[in-house]
Amino acid sequence: MQQLKRGWLLLLLKLTVVLGSLWMLSQLRQVKTGRGLPDILRYSQLDYTDVDCGPEKVCNCSAILQGEREALKQAKLLTITKDFRKRAQIPDEYYIDATQDCRKFKLSRNYFTFPLSKEEEDFPLAYSMVVHHKVQNFERLLRAIYTPQNIYCIHVDIKSEASVFAAIRAIASCFPNVFMVSQAVNVVYSGWPRVQADLNCMADLYHAKTKWKYFINLCGQDFPLKTNLEIVRMLRSLKGGNSLESEKMPNEKKWRVTIVHQIVNGKIQRTGNAKEPPPFNVPILSGNAYIVVNRGYIRSVLEDRRIQALLKWAKDTYSPDEFIWATIQRIPGVPGSKWPNPKHDMTDMNAVARLVKWNLHEGSQGSLEAAYPECQGNHVRQICVYGVGDLQWMLEQHHLFANKFDMDTDPITVYCLEKYLRKTALSELH
Asked: Of residues 322, 362, 369, 396, which has the active-site annotation?
């Protein structure tokens, strides 16, 4: 009897060992695939840990986001210090060297290497990213929006410095869902090539294996204001619609589409020739370069004969990126489009695509004539390059992304925003 009990105990012990081993193997498989990670492993791997080792970590981001004067004052003083700015910079060569070991690069830079939720996994997004400089800005942006179910097309201007192209190509090579555009162009500000850069990425993304739901185009100085889960939920709420600026073109801008322009020595120039009317009597609307549109809209851009004729017509206009997407959005039959009647006009502040502060529309707090408060950073080509004092206001807006940010002039703004987004994304895991 005693021997029988010992036999049963030994059998139970062996069974416990076997079951325990099987459980451990299942956990290891889950770690490799990124599914079912225990919370302690999730947080130790994903939590924001000041991976850049920059001087920004001396700032109190919580106080900055709450608009506390002393914290904002300290941050502003730091950003005008040459030594602080210099220490905050990461050279292009760092990314070229660090990506020699992709596994170590992704781990050390705290990239999300698995979907954080089934909801996000089932709603993949496509990004076009047009870049020409500031690799550090680009990499921080990519890290902030990267998830393995999304897909990313990177267009680097062919006249960019060799170190910029090499660094971005090296970063892209570490991710199976990040790729360089199949055909890069020489981008000319306010000229047709800016549109062509996005068109080339649109084609590459549309023909990729990933059946993404929405397309979002970015530049290297954008940054998200929402987590990927928040973006997914906002896009679901559109119920197949698009969200982009599209409104009546002001009279003072009509010369852009009524006079022929050409590119001479890399710059857009006006000629003395008048343009013919647009094809199919399409009403030309005003907008901007950045859009949030569904997959069907992109299919129409690539295949609809009306749109193909419109694109051809627009090639000799001025700043076509500021009307072409807005106009397509109002062509009947385009998925997610709105009827061209002025009742359906949408401003950039009402669309979710991009938050931009133009200095002409800024004003003092409480001013009824101002669209938004004054820029707390500096201006480049009439656009606010955000400072820490803009953060609290930005996070109160409904936009998915904002422009512009610059690690060269204010790294603290990007640092605090990224830290906030990472904390929010991790809190969504519960």
From this structure: 322
Local structure of 99: helix, strand or coil: coil
Tell me the per-residue pLDDT of 15-29, one tens digit each, with 9 for 90 and over: 544 444 444 444 434
Please identify which residue in the block is written with the tokens 């519960």: 430
Q: Tell which residue, 419, 405, 389, 354, has the closest CA to residue 143.
A: 419
The closest of 133, 30, 48, 32 to 420, measured between CA atoms, is 48
Other beta carbons less than 10 A from residue 176's beta carbon: 8
The reply to whether 396 belongs to the active site is no
Neighbour count for residue 304 (Cβ, 10 Å): 17
Quote the pLDDT of residue 23.
42
Residues 70 and 182: their CA atoms lie apart, in Å, by 49
* 408: helix, strand or coil: coil
Question: What amino acid occupies position 232?
Answer: V
Residue 112, phi then psi, degrees to nearest 5: -75, 115
pLDDT band at residue 428, thresholds of 50, 70 and 90? confident
What is d(CA 352, CA 355) in angstroms, rounded to the nearest whole number? 8
- Domain extent listing, the chain: 55-88+355-398+400-430, 247-344
Residues in the chain: 430
